Predict the structure.
Amino acid sequence: MLHQPVMLDVVSAALQLQPNGIYLDATFGRGGHAQAILHKLGPEGRLLAIDRDPEAIRYARQKLAGEHRFTIHHGCFDMLQQFCEEQGVAGCVNGVLMDLGVSSPQLDDADRGFSFQFDGPLDMRMDNSGGLTAAQWLAAAGEQEIADVLWRYGEERYSRRIARAIVGQRGHTPIETTRQLADLIAAASPSRDRHKHPATRCFQAIRIFINRELDSLEHGLEQAVSVLTQGGRLVVISFHSLEDRIVKRFMRQQARGRVLPRGLPVTGDAVGQTLRVVGKAVRASPGELAGNPRARSAVLRVAERIQ
Ligand SMILES: C[S@@+](CC[C@H](N)C(=O)[O-])C[C@H]1O[C@@H](n2cnc3c(N)ncnc32)[C@H](O)[C@@H]1O
């Protein structure tokens, strides 16, 4: 399935696109947002992009070949400051977009191993050019470590039972496919949520862990602030509460600055305030949800660089 960019108009408005501006799409995916940004840029505007998935990079290089305003980098967005420095735009960026999580093509490709709805190798790496696959991790991790990951990143209430079942099964049969893991989780879960497959939370948890998604997000947010120019916008779309909590806290902390003892005669930059929160969290409209169910859990937050 093609990736449908989420809240496209809201993103464009939140970035306050200027024809000569410099923008960074830190999660290129299939370039839905990127192409909308390019469309609004003039000949002097620039769009930098990042994605950790080699497929996304291949797609970008093909789709946007000859687009002189566009430069893409293969890597994690926790290196975005270095990328901007190399491009000579650190401190001059007018807007950074992070549209977190996985894209539809990643989810729909059985060989990537992200989805329990298709049978495929249990991989789950966004960057499949290196690092441990989910199968390799599950083959080696201790029972307690597996339970902790399922609980921490999936809030899976049967985390211990499921971890025990994984360690029990791998003793005689290696767990190498998405179907094997999904069936095992379903069998180890004593009760069912009618609206969710029993493996939903565990697949989310393992994916977050394998890709170090929350650590990368924390570092990426800090670096995004450091590359923005005054008045530049940070726009983040998250798809589950763990991500959104990090984004919300980060924006609030940066807007509040360091807490100093009462009575000190300091305000503004003296307490390290770097952002102003712009409006409230935004969700997709009913019209968008009707055409793109993936937008259901999306939460968009915006902040502006203030110094
Ligand atoms: C939801 S999709 C983005 C879709 C994109 N906005 C579009 O309109 O096509 C998320 C993309 O971000 C990438 N990604 C996720 N976390 C990343 C990270 N920490 N660093 C770089 N890329 C990341 C994924 O590989 C995926 O391609």
Summary: The beta strands are 22-25, 46-51, 70-74, 93-99, 228-238, 275-282, 299-305. DSSP finds 13 helices and seven strands in the chain.
